[in-house]
Design a protein that fits this description.
By secondary structure, the protein is α/β, with parallel strands linked by helices. The protein has a domain at about 5-185: 2-enoyl-CoA Hydratase, Chain A, domain 1 (Alpha-Beta Complex), CATH 3.90.226.10. It has eleven helices and ten strands. The strands form two sheets. Strands 1-2-3-5-7-10 form a six-stranded mixed sheet, with helices on both faces. Strands 4-6-8-9 form a four-stranded mixed sheet. The model has no long low-confidence stretch (mean pLDDT about 95). It is found in: Peroxisome. Pfam families: ECH_1.
Length: about 260
């Protein structure tokens, strides 16, 4: 199992559980998480979903070894939902989503905070949006959601620089509500989730709908733009250099790329 699911007091906790891979999303985990969100959306006994990770990482983002296979071998099987299906499930999720970042979060492990109604972060946790370091484009509508959450310059730095963002900086930027000692993270996140879960589900859904409805079209348009840019860049010279460097355990050298790349 790549995803652990548990229910308590109308809160469904989803725990990403590939600790040996730092909870990186392969096709199996993308499918499992999307299915879990879809199921929670339809379950009348679930009011809130709390998402976290097992081990020392929240999520290292997309599994780069599998990403390299998908980029270079058209015969590699793809999942039912994949990355795009997970993003769609996040966009459409009608109930409160609480995210507890217990360790490092890269790629979707950072951009998923754009969909969090409440975000909490362990004090030692860090985030990175490594898109330029991988020679690709933003993802998960972060090109729209991050500027809306944290302002243009904070978003530009996060999405353009591929630099680490510490927990305190993430809180100052507005990516998370609260920073906690690691040993208090889940208790804090659960306490907030249970406050929400004690409220009428119909009211929670109505409030979230009124907050998100004005942004849904813009989010989908951003997602489509990102997907088109990502598809154009994936497998290109910069992306292949980044993936080869990762597989070989070295830093990528983008200075050797053709002009314009």
């Amino acid at each position: 199992m790549t995803l652990q699911v548990s229910d308590d007091r109308r809160v469904r906790t989803l725990t990403l559980d590939r600790p040996e891979a730092l909870n990186a999303f392969n096709e199996e985990l993308y499918d499992a998480t999307a299915d879990a969100l879809l199921a929670a959306a339809e379950d009348p006994g679930i009011a809130v979903v709390l998402l976290t990770g097992a081990g020392r990482a929240f999520s290292a983002g997309t599994d780069l070894l599998e990403m390299h296979q998908l980029a270079t071998d058209p015969d590699v099987p793809r999942g039912k939902h994949g990355f795009i299906g997970l993003v769609d499930a996040l966009v459409d999720f009608p109930k409160p989503l609480v995210v507890a970042v217990n360790g490092l979060g890269l790629g979707i492990g950072a951009t998923i905070l754009g969909f969090a109604d409440l975000g909490f972060m362990a004090a030692e946790a860090r985030l990175k949006c490594p898109f330029t370091a991988l020679g690709v484009a933003p993802e998960a509508a972060s090109s729209y959601l991050f500027p809306a959450l944290v302002g243009r310059q904070h978003a530009a730095w996060a999405l353009l620089s591929s630099e680490w963002i510490g927990a305190e900086e993430a809180q100052r930027m507005g990516l998370v509500k609260e920073v906690c000692p690691a040993e208090e993270l889940m208790a804090t996140a659960r306490r907030h989730a249970e406050v929400l879960a004690a409220k009428p589900i119909s009211s929670l859904v109505a409030v979230k709908h009124t907050m998100t409805a004005p942004h849904r079209a813009a989010i989908r348009e951003a997602r489509d733009r990102e997907n088109a840019a990502f598809a154009e860049l994936m497998g290109g010279p910069a992306n292949l250099e980044a993936l080869a460097a990762f597989a070989e355990g070295r830093e990528p050298d983008f200075t050797r790329l053709p002009p314009g790349w």
